[in-house]
């Protein structure tokens, strides 16, 4: 896995290089302190992976990616700031590591890169630059979720349920239930309707997680989501849409 480290702080580059010694598959082929140094290296060395800082003198990390011609490597952002996370996933970053980088989180990021390089189509990819910041998000997109001091970079396909909690939305994935400051209506506008269905006023469900469907009161439906005890009512009005969508 040919890897470039791009960070204007020498100590940060050294620390990341030290941590990456724990991963024999990672071959660090170079370092750069800014975009001007990095771009010719990317062109000449054709790395598989960039560990990329965001705030740097001159072009920032996002502007660097926009300047790459041809195939863009996989990207793991490394930064001391969490406010760039939403923009980071719009650039199809595989992960977003906050400094100081934790070895366990770095291990998760490396595993994610290995999975992408093994099963993805990196050689045919166009640059990781958002063509439309309002694009629909599907099951293979990853989102940054922050609730208090906890952070996740989760693939949307793992989220089985979104629940409105006033001005917040609760996400259900694995055994986690973080809250994000967003309305359910705004979230619905971003989600691919082929995968995510507005069941009622309070819930959006991931159709791929439905385990069982039962008739319910007043022409509605009751769905059970697999891997959990979540039972969600599909309102009568939405049940009509649901049947139209799911019927042959």
Automatic annotation (TrEMBL):
The keyword Translocase does not apply. GO terms for molecular function: DNA binding; phosphorelay response regulator activity. Keywords: Phosphoprotein. SMART domains: LytTR, REC. The modification 4-aspartylphosphate is found at residue 53. Residues 145-248 form the HTH LytTR-type domain. It comes from the Bacteria. Residues 2-114 form the Response regulatory domain. CDD domains: REC_LytTR_AlgR-like (cd17532). PROSITE patterns: HTH_LYTTR, RESPONSE_REGULATORY. This is Two component transcriptional regulator, LytTR family. It comes from Fibrella aestuarina BUZ 2.
């Amino acid at each position: 896995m040919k890897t470039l480290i791009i960070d204007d702080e020498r100590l940060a580059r050294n620390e990341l290089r030290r941590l990456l010694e724990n991963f024999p598959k990672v071959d660090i082929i170079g370092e750069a302190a800014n975009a001007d140094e990095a771009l010719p290296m990317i062109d000449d060395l054709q790395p598989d992976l960039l560990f990329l800082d965001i705030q740097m003198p001159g072009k920032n990390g996002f502007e660097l990616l926009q300047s790459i011609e041809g195939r863009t490597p996989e990207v793991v952002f490394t930064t001391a700031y969490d406010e760039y996370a939403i923009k980071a996933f719009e650039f199809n970053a595989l992960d977003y590591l906050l400094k100081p980088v934790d070895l366990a989180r770095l291990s998760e990021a490396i595993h994610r890169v290995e999975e992408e390089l093994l099963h993805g189509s990196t050689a045919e990819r166009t640059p990781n630059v958002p063509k439309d910041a309002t694009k629909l998000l599907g099951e293979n997109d990853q989102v940054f979720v922050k609730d208090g001091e906890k952070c996740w970079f989760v693939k949307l396909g793992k989220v089985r349920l979104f629940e409105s909690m006033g001005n917040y939305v609760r996400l259900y994935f694995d055994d986690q239930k973080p809250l994000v400051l967003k309305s359910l209506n705004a979230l619905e506008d971003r989600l691919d309707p082929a995968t995510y269905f507005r069941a009622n006023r309070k819930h959006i469900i991931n159709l791929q997680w439905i385990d069982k469907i039962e008739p319910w009161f007043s022409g509605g439906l009751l769905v059970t989501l697999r891997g959990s005890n979540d039972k969600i009512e599909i309102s009568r009005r939405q049940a009509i849409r649901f049947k139209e969508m799911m019927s042959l």
